[in-house]
Amino acid sequence: MSIHTLHKLASLMALAILLVGCMAPTPLPQPTPEPLTLTDSRGQEVQVPREVKRIVSLAPSNTEILFALGLGDRVVGVTTLCDYPQEAKAIEKVGDLMSMNVEKIVSLSPNLVLAIEGMPEVVAKLEEVSIAVLVLQPTDLESIYHTIELVGQAAGAEEAAQELLASMREGVEAVTAKVEGVEKRPKVFYELDATDPAKPYTAGPGTWHDQFIRLAGGVNIAGEADMPWVQFSTEEIIAQDPAIIVLGDANYGVTAEDVAQRPGWEVIAAVRKGAVYPIDDNLISRPGPRVVEGIEALARIIHPELFE
Amino acid sequence: MPFSGRRGWSRVGILLALGLGLLGGVILATSLGTVAIPFDQVARMMVHRLVGFGSATSQSPQAEAIIFQIRLPRVVTAVIVGSALAAAGTVFQGLLRNPMADPYIIGTSGGAALGATLALILPWQVIWFGFTLVPILAFVGAMGAVLIVYRVARVGPRTPITTLLLAGFALSSMMAAVMSFLMLAGTRTLHQVVLWTMGGVAASGWSQIQVVTPLVLVGMVLAFLLAHDLNAFLLGEEQAAHLGVDVERRKLALLMVGSLLTAAAVSVSGLVGFIGLVVPHVARLLFGPDHRFLLPASALVGAIFLVLADLVARVLMSPADIPVGIITALIGAPFFIYLLRRSKREYVF
């Protein structure tokens, strides 16, 4: 009897192998015009079709870049986090902070998907069905410019990209020109997330936040930290004694009053002098066209005297 | 435990019914998803792919891609992972004679999670047979952990179950601590690590399936060949020895087979919980303790269960995808309690 069962089992397995073998992938038909080869933030060469008509964006920053380049009408899918510009909210949603729905993305038949780091499985799946995916992960202002240029090239909007870059550079220069030659560069703590108020997250070296604080005439107290995204304990913040605290988590409802309530924080210079300011972190943390506004907002907080 | 021809036939009948149930589950799960594709279209595409019969009728290459590159690999992965974890759970429960044993009990989960975390933190981009570093290091971590536990638990020529369990627990705790530390250091990958430990079958594709399927099949066949020894182990190691079982060698073989099944499953799915613990019990309640029958039945039930759980996970809050581990526990636990209470006899493990 056990031999009988064994036979059955073996034939079941053979069937399973057969099924797996038969259903091996067949590539989808390729579009005819010669594709464009672009290198994305992964350093990977991506074949982007010549006529990019339907674009899916998997991050708010990517959505903002697309709209700023006048490509908003080609965006057919965004994430639930994509809330700027207003028009983006009306577009079909393909995912949220936790996960992207690959099936949904494919059903929108995009010929270009703009992803970010941290979703390698999604990218691999999309590439498996021959959809061009550019992963955009800038680390500083120059690379933000570069990603905008890249999106411009990919979608045939080079001119719009150059115009946008020129105005962005102008905006940043206006700030840096003002800040140049300031005598005091105050110490700044940029709070990203204080879910644990005793150990808030901040941005350290190798982040564009760090660079923006410098451009805006401040010194990031986490600028010498070991890691780019890092938790700072109350003790450490007190020891560094920042003159200014910027609440990047103001969008999540954290206020200067909350900060003053935190045990031990009352001794920090910024708290004593009431120099705890909210900021719209979307202007800073989304590496897109609006970072210029973010840099200016930072400069206004750090050096209000320059903007009187 | 020889059984009559009649009983044997009913067993074959049950396995056949389970197999048909699994086939139905696979078809159902492939037909349903975020994007509505009419069932007749799905059926036509499937028949066309399988036997080359009928027209391709792919007015929509998107539908083709969704069915064959996204849904079907996901469903097939659920079959492989569900059956592997259930079979591994059956092996570990039988071998360790412990109703709380699951495929992760002697360190496979800790080792796999540590390996995956390392892979997510390391900056290298490796692609090997369609695998990134995460599944490779998860597999290596799982097998490595079991080997270490086995080595540590060895007392002279023997490896007592108690030391095995305790060494597994100790090593798991240690690896969990190292993992937490690494997660702290690699803040940017924290989110990915957390998602990985929740488990899921969404990320797997055909290339992964082609590598993992043979591993799981080999594990299944070996487990089935060792089913007789598992039955002997149920009587206790001493009794098994009296029955002529080479206890220590068979123990090692069973440990390795169970770990191979677990490591293969975990490498494509992360840590899907609950299945490996409860499905073997469900199968035992329904079909009795004879491992020659229990093993294949448990594997089939595990496959059906994970296919359906994953279907619920992706359809319930569509387009959002709920981690499948939440669904397996949420649906599985009440069902298990119901079975426990319904069974007229006392459940003898």
Describe the structure.
Chain A is an alpha/beta fold. Chain A has twelve helices and 13 strands. In chain A, strands 8, 9, 10, 11, 12 and 13 form a six-stranded mixed beta sheet that branches. In chain A, strand 6 (112-115), helix 4 and strand 7 form a beta-alpha-beta unit. Chain A starts with a helix and ends in a 6-residue tail after the last helix. The model of chain A is unreliable at 12-25 (pLDDT under 50). By secondary structure, chain B is mainly α. In chain B, helix 3 runs parallel beside helix 8 (206-225), helix 3 (61-96) packs across helix 9 (227-234) and helix 4 (108-121) packs antiparallel against helix 7 (190-198). The longest helix of chain B has 36 residues, at 61-96. The interface between A and B is large, with 48 and 52 residues.
What characteristics describe this protein?
heterodimer, A: 308 residues, 6-stranded mixed sheet, 5-stranded parallel sheet, 13 strands, B: 349 residues, mainly alpha, globular
Mean pLDDT of chain B: 87
Taking the sheet with the most strands of chain B, its summary is:
none
The assigned structural class of chain A equals alpha/beta
Low-confidence stretches of chain B: 1-5
Tell me the radius of gyration of chain A.
24 Å
Count of DSSP E strands of chain B? 0
Tally of helical segments of chain B:
14
What is the 3D shape of chain B? globular
Helical coverage of chain B, percent range: over 70%
State the helical fraction of chain A: 25-40%
- Which range does the strand content of chain A fall in? 15-25%
Number of beta-strand segments of chain A: 13
Radius of gyration of chain B: 21 Å
Oligomer: heterodimer
Largest interface: A-B, 48 and 52 residues
| Spatial gap, N to C terminus of chain B | 17 Å
Class by helix and strand content of chain B? mainly alpha
- Largest sheet data of chain A: 6 strands, mixed
What is the H/E order of chain B?
HHHHHHHHHHHHHH
Cα distance spanning the termini of chain A: 93 Å
Mean pLDDT of chain A: 89
